[in-house]
Amino acid sequence: MAIDRTPVLKRCRQLGIDPIVMGINKESHREPRRRRRQESEYGMQLREKQKAKFIYGVLEKQFRRYYEEADRHPGKTGDTLLQILESRLDNVVYRAGFAATRRQARQLVVHGHFLVNGKKVNIPSYRVKAHDIIDVAEKSMNIHPLVVARETHGERTVPAWLEARPNRMRILVHQLPVREQIVIDVQEQMIVELYSK
Q1: What residues contact residue 67 under an 8 Å CB cut-off, 6+ apart?
Q2: DSSP state of 171
Q3: Separation of alpha carbons 121 and 119, rounded Å
Q4: What do you get for the CA distance between the two ends of the chain, in Å?
Q5: What is the C-alpha separation between 122 and 139, in angstroms, rounded?
Q6: Residue 146: pLDDT above 60?
Q7: Which of 24-38, 106-120, 134-148, 157-171 has the lowest mean pLDDT?
Q8: For the chain, what percent of residues have pLDDT higher than 70?
Q9: Is 37 helix (H, G, I), strand (E, B) or coil?
Q10: What is the Cα 153 distance to its own chain's centre?
Q11: Residue 108: pLDDT band by 50, 70, 90 thresholds?
């Protein structure tokens, strides 16, 4: 598997993302570099795609597959693409507040700490569906990241399409998210324009 080893804060600066979006509570005190010339339309579209890939931790090949799947669905391609990305299991665990960052959520999923509808799932890209129930495995109740998540629950707001129950270490998926419920700063229309060239 390919791994992006670029420091997170450096990548956030390059893409113009606030590190809080990535779950990192640090500030950069550097002044942003001034660009000499105006960015082209292609450059802006590419930046939006890179931003979405970086936020969700997805590589190019998988991101393109998600786009092609979204393109086949009826409705707005950009909205469907973001819905697919939001419904990944690692993102759901992060959004519910059971992990500090998406990278930590990915690691917790890979190590088999979560059950979806009673079955162990260790694939971060597993897509949850409406009315799924995600539980923490019995053996994993006392691992440090999940204990911290239980104690600090409520610091991060859980989206309306999810319900987190930290006392039982359970996540309920009420529905798949719609665009209004997805609060990332990505212009999905530019990604669609980039891929449809």
Answers
A1: 77, 81, 191, 192, 195
A2: E
A3: 6
A4: 28
A5: 15
A6: yes
A7: 24-38
A8: 92
A9: coil
A10: 18
A11: very high
Per-position b or e across 47-65, b if 16+ CB within 10 A of its CB: bbbbbbbbbbbbeeeebee
67/59 Cα distance (integer angstroms): 12
- Per the DSSP assignment, residues forming a β-bridge with 114 are 136
79 and 131 in contact (C-beta within 8 Å)?
no
Q: What is the rounded distance in angstroms from the CA atom of residue 6 to the CA atom of residue 81?
A: 25
Mean pLDDT, the chain, integer: 88
- Asked whether residue 79 carries a pLDDT value surpassing 90, the answer given is yes
Contact 66, 58 (CB under 8 A): yes
Helix (H) / strand (E) element for 136: namely strand 133-136
Q: Which residue bears the tokens 């979806």?
A: 116
